[in-house]
Write a structure and sequence with these properties.
about 675 residues; alpha/beta; 8-stranded mixed β-sheet; 6-stranded mixed β-sheet; 17 strands; about 10% strand
């Protein structure tokens, strides 16, 4: 892959009576939206520029050095695709050494150094800023972080050494470990300021000029940014030990990057720079050549490229304008959708339910969620009031008559949805799109009695709606291009990633997840112990175990979907007398107080419900893992053969965004191929 070379352009800026600040501007010549990355040639150019500035500083020609990027991008570190092409630890090590050697020149300049971060600063880009003495950040920046662990790597250009010294070990653990493991959470400028990464957060309108003014204040001694006391070695050890337990509870050893990063942070608490950099070199050399990194690059491409251009989507020009939305239902899912549509699409949204109490409860939910966003500082009062004014409720079906799009979000029962569709068709406009948020039911059957099934489309949002980034857009044989294109346009307007799915039972994500859960429940019926089943899938590194997922979905809902898919797809979605009895008794799968979570421990006493086929003999952990892998491989092959999606990449993208399938596994199909379950 050809390197897009990042240039290091140097110009002198006169600071009144102080002297000259040499300003390095990073520029790749690819327009404002293409991130600045460093390959070998770009890093060599930066090194040459820094060596020249070091000589000028020694000669007294300059009093400071600043580094900045272009409007929306400061720097995003190493070029991932070039790194992924490296096949030997020796070649990978050169990448690490190259960055360390270059950034060390910057860190050791004999004049004060400043990073003016006016755009995204990720990975090696943030490490470049950390090598400077001071940092300003534009108030508009929303992407600051060290995402390497999320990608199967470690911060390899000084991050594990510099960051804990600047902001303390607790905060460094948040940035290097916790945030990447929370679906690659990144910092906004204000958060960077609170943590101490940014010495000043400056309004974006005049960012560079004000940053240079800040630098002048520092040089004059008028501004002295505060610095934290270093974390003691003992306290750092305690913090890292606690973080290691949390990582192990999440990954169970399934991926090495987080563990290596913790080792490096532990080393940084007691060792000098040279030793820490050498350890980063070694770790990066090994991890770049790991299957986890290759898988992560594949997953990164899916989520950053394919997700923006869904395969099989019609031309966007065919989409009908959506200036108002009606929702049939006012329950939890309907209320979440109402908030999303009003907030992202900024159109009037009206929820209709059978009685005033339900509609008022739905509107009240929206108001309460807006109050929470304001309270957390994530939304201003004015915006909250605007969104609040867009959402209303009604009991009159006729109030949905003028909506451009009406989506049903009622109980997941085919007959109920058919009745709702039949009622809606009598009142909505002839050109209105009629959508369903069903998670598993046949949309063809749902629309079979309608006069105009061509305007029916599935737009399946995942729960919780605000957090889950995926939408499955489902087309029946009758759905026309206008309705289909409108569904994709709605998903895009809501800032969701869409995949095109045929009208097949369970679509993609639920079909695979329910198959997985069905195999676990079937194994319990065969006599597998609960504790064994709880541990068996840990090597997959999923965000939660099967019993935690069953509890979060709700045993009754899981049982209903399992029954539905068994009716449509056959006995590979097995019956589970134990699950049926648990539902009847209201028994939970996990122990919890207020609400279940991914960390809730399984209640091993539920084993008393299972074992209806114990004569078959249960599995050990390895046997159950293999059973699940083979089942997922079978279902994946069937979906591809049935044309549920265009290509396997859509299954992978769906599982990453809709089920939290780990980046380090690279999607479900590469994982199953590595496991030997899928050809």
């Amino acid at each position: 892959m050809t390197e897009r070379i990042t240039r290091a352009l140097v110009r002198d800026v006169q600071l009144a009576d102080l002297g000259t600040l040499a300003l390095i501007t990073l520029e790749n010549g690819a327009g404002p939206t293409k991130p600045i990355t460093f390959g070998p040639e770009g890093m060599a150019e930066l090194r040459t520029a820094l060596e020249q500035l070091s000589a000028r500083a020694e000669a007294g020609e300059i009093v400071a050095v600043g580094v900045t990027g272009k409007q929306f991008h400061f720097a995003a570190g190493a070029d991932l695709h070039q790194a992924a092409q490296l096949t030997t630890p020796e070649a990978a090590r050169q990448i690490a050494e190259m960055g360390h050697e270059t950034y060390t020149i910057l860190a050791d300049l004999p004049v004060p150094t400043f990073a003016f971060v006016g755009g995204v600063a990720l990975g090696g880009g943030l490490e470049l800023a950390l090598a400077c003495d001071y940092r300003t950040v534009s108030s508009a920046v929303r992407g600051i972080g060290l995402p390497e662990v999320f990608l199967g790597l470690i911060p390899g250009w000084g991050g594990t050494y510099h960051l804990p010294r600047l902001i303390g070990m607790a905060n460094a653990l948040q940035v290097i470990i916790s945030n990447p493991m929370k679906q690659n959470t990144q910092l906004k400028s204000a958060q960077a300021g609170e943590l101490g990464i940014a010495d000043a957060v400056i309004d974006s309108a005049d960012f560079l000029a004000e940053s240079i003014r800040f630098a002048s204040g520092v040089l004059r001694g008028e501004i002295t940014p505060p610095r934290r006391e270093p974390t003691s070695a003992d306290e750092a050890h305690e913090l890292i030990s606690a973080a290691r337990e949390q990582v192990d509870a999440r990954l169970h050893g399934a991926a090495p990057a987080a563990y290596r990063a913790l080792d490096l942070l532990e080393l940084s608490a007691t060792s000098e720079r040279a030793e820490c950099f050498e350890a980063e070199n070694q770790a990066l050399a090994e991890l770049i050549c790991s299957p986890e990194f290759a898988a992560s690059v594949y997953a990164f491409d899916l989520t950053s490229r394919r997700a923006k251009n869904p395969a099989g989507a019609p031309d966007a020009d065919q989409a009908r304008p959506v200036r108002s939305i009606g929702i049939a239902g006012a329950g939890l899912m309907a209320s979440q959708l109402a908030l999303l549509f009003a907030r992202r699409m900024q159109v009037p949204v009206i929820m209709r339910d059978l009685d005033t109490e339900r509609t008022e409860r739905g509107v009240g939910y929206v108001h309460a969620e807006l109050d929470k966003l304001v309270g957390k500082g994530r939304m201003g009062d004015a915006e909250a009031n605007r969104v609040r004014s867009l959402v209303s409720g009604t009991t009159e079906l006729s109030d949905l008559a003028q909506a451009d799009l009406v989506i049903e979000a009622v109980f997941e029962e085919l007959s109920v949805k058919q009745q709702v569709f039949a009622e809606l068709e009598q009142v909505i406009r002839p050109d209105a799109v009629l959508a369903t948020n069903t998670s598993a039911l046949s949309i063809t059957a749902m629309s079979s009695g309608l006069a105009h099934p061509e305007r029916v489309v599935g737009i399946h949002f995942f729960n919780p709606v605000a957090q889950m980034p995926l939408v499955e857009v489902i087309r029946t044989e009758s759905t026309d291009d206008a309705a289909y294109a409108t569904a994709f346009a709605v998903a895009k307007a809501c800032r969701k990633s869409a995949i095109a799915v045929a009208d097949a039972p369970g679509f993609v994500v639920n079909r695979l997840l329910v198959r997985l859960l069905g195999e676990v429940l079937g194994s319990l019926e065969d006599g597998t112990e609960v504790a064994v089943a709880d541990r068996a899938l840990r090597p997959m590194g999923l965000p939660m175990g099967p019993f935690q997922l069953l509890q979060l979905v709700g045993p009754a809902v899981a049982g209903h979907v399992l029954d539905t898919l068994r009716e449509q797809l056959g006995d590979r979605y097995p019956t589970s007398p134990g699950l049926e009895q648990m539902i009847a008794d209201g028994a939970p799968f996990v122990a919890f107080e207020s609400r279940p979570s991914a960390a809730s421990p399984v209640d091993e006493s539920i084993g008393r419900y299972f074992g209806s086929r114990a004569e078959a003999g249960g599995q050990d952990g390895a046997g159950l893992l293999t059973r699940v892998q083979q089942a997922l491989a079978e279902e994946t092959q069937l979906m591809l053969a049935e044309g549920v999606v265009a290509e396997k990449e859509d299954i992978d993208l769906g599982m990453i965004l809709g089920a939290g399938w780990p980046f380090h596994l690279g999607g479900i199909t590469p994982y199953l191929q590595r496991a030997g379950a899928l050809a």
